[in-house]
Amino acid sequence: MAETPDIQQSAPTQGTNEQVAEYCLRPVADLLPAGSQWSWQFDKDAPPSTWSAQGFDDSAWSVGPAPLGFVAKGIATDVSAKTTRPGPRVAYFRSKFEAPKLPQGASIVVNTVADDGLILYVNGQEIGRSNVISGPDSHDLFASSSFFGPVTYTIPASLLRVGTNDISASVHLNFRATRAISFDARVQILTPDFSTPPQSEACPIAATELLAAGSTWSWQFKTSAPGGNWAGVGFDDSAWSTGPAPLGFAAKGVVSNIAPKGVRPGPRVAYFRSDFTAPALSGTESVVVNTVADDGVVMYVNGVEVGRSNVIAGPDSNMLFASTSYKGPVSFDIPVALIHEGQNTISASVHLNYRATRAVAFDAEIEMLTPAAAPPAAPTSPTPESVAPSPEASASTEPPTTAPATTTQINETPTSSAATALTSESPLSEAVPQTGAQTTGAQTTGAQTTGAQTTGAQPPVSAVPAAPAASATSPETIQVSGASSAAPSTTISLVPATSSTLGAPPPADPAVLANWGAPVFRDEFNATTVDSTKWRVRDKTRLAYDQAIISASQVKVANGNLSIATQWLANPVLGTERPRYFNTGYIDTIGLFSQRYGRWEMRAKLPLVTGASRGIWPAFWLRDSRGLGEIDIMEAIGAPHDQMGSQPEGTFSSTVHQSTNHEAGTVRVSTLNKKLPTVIGGYHTWALEWDPAGMRFYYDGALVWAPTTKDNPWFNTAFTDAGVNIRIDTQVGFWWMGYADPLHKEWTTDASYDIDYVRVWKYNP
Fold first, then answer.
1. Whole-angstrom distance, CA of residue 429 vs CA of residue 426
2. 747: phi > 0 → left, psi -120 to 50 → alpha, else beta; which?
3. Residues 6+ apart with CB under 8 A from 702
4. What are the distances in angstroms from CA 85 to CA 92, 176, 200, 629?
5. pLDDT one-digit tens code per residue, 163-210
6. Which of 119, 153, 243, 309 could form a cystine bridge with 129, CB 3.0-4.6 A?
């Protein structure tokens, strides 16, 4: 039999390749919709090594529609290994899609949701991975961390075939005792939009998903009207039911059944409410809501109607039938003036066509479309050759880190349109993990740097004094970037020439330390934006156990600091597992930088105010990229709180965890520094030195704690050769410290966690 030919692009009809590349790509068809059927295996034995290859016989595997998994919300097929203890670490999935001959300039992408980590294959070849370390795929390989959002991959054209293609995925758990797993994927074909002249005007792209399809909604479906301003901001819907979309009854794909029982005749109108977080809008954006509403819908944002479909004009009423039966998905533009920075409320009344209707269905997603940036202007003059790089820049040995070309954020790739975003039979229903582990925002993957496991003599203790605060008369600095966007920037100091500076030797770099040398990772935060080659900024997510929404808008770089702002929300997020009263921020180096052994140091001012920081919980910590170990270099809790006896106001703790899962037998080592009132106010330095002999913790250059590996041999197993990644965040409220109280806002003042620098040195025995 002749081999199926590789997929080929058809002859160009719109100009040269270079001309076609200038047009926007638009989704035109689903080759594999979300919610499709997948074959799957999840048991203690690994499948054959050819499990991802084209033509592999998976007839003995189980089959079911996505989302597949267990415990997570919105699961359509339960894959839990009920008879296996301990459970398996990796679930395997296979499906197929038909690919056409691609038009000129077209591409095919895969949008994925995979809790916790994913390796994705097409026709037996890996096309990308998320939250899984580099190297061979293994049945024993844990995910690097817990689930932190959807990811989109572009399939290389060389792997595609005209006709049938196999798509496969291994989904890796973060730890064996995980409480949730979920998987779904959607394959789309994108083609150039020749209706928009190239480069002549802004090209709208789906830049941000403000509310995902499949999100949780509060709902009421009764014969009586909800009363009050049910669609408005601040309406108390705590007595309503809640559940993930699609919501309804008798329709395909419904996840939350809202059918009224014992009510005859049944109600005519179902009511739905949810919340979404929006950044500050400049006015150049457009925001749309894509809906599936069987039969008719009236849609509201912050209490104002933004559109209706299949419902006659006039007052909205719980007695009002839809005009006709369901006609398909519809999109409405949301006026930008209606949207507030921070929390917003979206509401919908869904009207039946007749009282004895056989089906109701509702789902919605909100996308913010942002004009693409114009091409950068050509430089008007070359950089003077007489300006030399500073010693700091020339001494740096920090390697550039780049993300794989085939992996992008889902909110940076157009994945839906008004015509194809949602259907009542195959809604885009993204499962939400319900793990107790840390969860994160939007996913970015990149080259991973790991420190080799080494042994040797313990280096001398380095007592490093705190760096002085920046002076108001410090030299002005500018950033000069290299040609490559992945290259580290060079800082050039502009100092007026004086008799004392001419001919003087360059100042010593304070980051070059005796016994350690120059840092292998450093960020002085002298730019104007977060360096995406070093940091991943989480967005539109939340942790399972605190009172805050994590938003990228709360993380800013300015004046030589990275700042994480924690602020009360004007409109709290209700109807979740816990009310969310705050906006805060979270950054990490997952997938960008990790290292085993070395020195980690941060200089920062904590977001604590004496007597007015209840629930505020800043931290500087490290997590193993493959195992379960955690090192909390610094955690502080604001006062008044519930642990004043063991951790008085103005103190911090340092902790080493053998396992973040805290299963039986876990060893936990902790120290508390009780008489350090200077933690509140001003900048301070925290550092960890770690080598095979043990760990040494420093505060403002003074050694405060030194647990040894001899006394804690589990250091060697809790932390793997994959290294630890860096995490910096502010959480709000927890049971052991107490929660912030919305009735006493004076107990918790808005505050900023200001980081002057973060530096990491490699361990050299």
1. 8
2. alpha
3. 463
4. 18, 10, 61, 22
5. 999 999 999 988 654 567 889 999 988 877 665 554 434 444 445 678
6. 119
